[in-house]
């Protein structure tokens, strides 16, 4: 796959080359940790979060309105 792509590049059919790097054989879990994902950490929602979420959206919406007026 890599060789075929790079051959197309040498013929002018592609605009970039590809190669392997140190992350090429990483598992999905290893890639996830790169972005801060930790599968052993779990979050539990307690109670009704709609009031909190609703309040945050209102604040965001109001800040967008203020930004648009400037």
Automatic annotation (TrEMBL):
Residues 1-30 form the Cathepsin propeptide inhibitor domain. It holds the Pfam family Inhibitor_I29. This is Cathepsin propeptide inhibitor domain-containing protein. It comes from Wuchereria bancrofti.
